[in-house]
Amino acid sequence: MLLPMKDLLVRASKENYGVAAPNVSTELDARAVIEAAEELHAPLILDVAYMATKDIKFFGSYLTRLAEKSNVPIAINLDHGFLYEHAIDAIAAGFTSVMVDRSSESYEVNVRDVKEIVKVAHATGVSVEAELGHVGDGSNYEVDGVTALTDPSMAKKYIEETGVDCLAVAIGTAHGEYKGTPHIDFDRLVEIKKIVGPDYPLVLHGGSGSGDENLAKACRLGINKVNIFTDLMIAAKNSVADVTNYRALWATISGAIKDQIAYYIKLFGGENKAWIPENYGVKGNK
Ligand SMILES: [Zn+2]
Fold first, then answer.
1. Please, what are the domains in the chain?
2. Residue 136 Cα, ligand 1 centroid: separation in angstroms?
3. In this model, does residue 264 exceed pLDDT 80?
């Protein structure tokens, strides 16, 4: 079932678990993660980076078809949309959510740009994710892990001003592989959730390599979407290291990605959380 991302996340927030959001860029990884979600009866978010596909409209039509015929709730989200045009392309491609990343800009520019896309996206039933504070890069973790963390006192104001459906927070995770040990600021997370309210969904970027205990705890304390990319790629890479039969190559990669995301779905508490929306399939509803 293809649903707006907001539907998946508000429910996850109310029921206190995290939805796994793997980055996908091909048929192979998209099918692998959907199979894992179906076997675990779990909701799923497909994150797609604009640059990861050569033709977002082609890939979007493919992913929406896969999602529509699946028996679990699936949302398709543009990951880190940096340009207005990218968000529009994703909406035209059938995505049910777009992330507008202006986290490197000033607060004013961030609010202005996000607000503009929220207006367009909401008019077509598409959800919007945005980031306050800035999640940096694991290779520069010493600096990025402690600077530009989300200011809890600004969170509510930001949500009200932009109208955004879920908020990506910077609480000590980082993208890519960590150089050093990740330290998650759980007190900050608890404070943000308290301020935005128990039903408002929060997003964690840079889930890979952050540590199982940390991720499970973050989901218990209010994170409702966890982005996973690097760990899927590492699992895929490691799985083929000893493959000698070239015919087994794709199946081995696919199996490794499926196993890795299945592990995370369970860790985040998403297992058996799939549901069928009341009006699903009724004209006017996706
Ligand atoms: Zn990210």
1. 5-268 (3.20.20.70)
2. 8
3. yes
Judge residue 204's burial from the number of C-beta atoms within 10 Å of its C-beta, 0-12 exposed, 13-18 middle, 19 or more buried: buried
Contact 8, 268 (CB under 8 A): no
Q: In what order do the strands lie in the sheet with 166-169?
A: 19-22, 223-228, 202-204, 166-169, 127-132, 97-100, 74-81, 44-49
In this structure, are residues 9 and 189 in contact, taking their beta carbons and an 8 Å threshold?
no
pLDDT of residue 279: 77
Q: Pull the structure tokens for residue 285.
A: 């509803």
Dist. CA 174 → ligand 1 center (Å): 8
Ligand 1 centroid to 79 CA: how many Å?
7
SS3 106: coil
* Residue 199 annotated to the active site: no
pLDDT at 284: 53
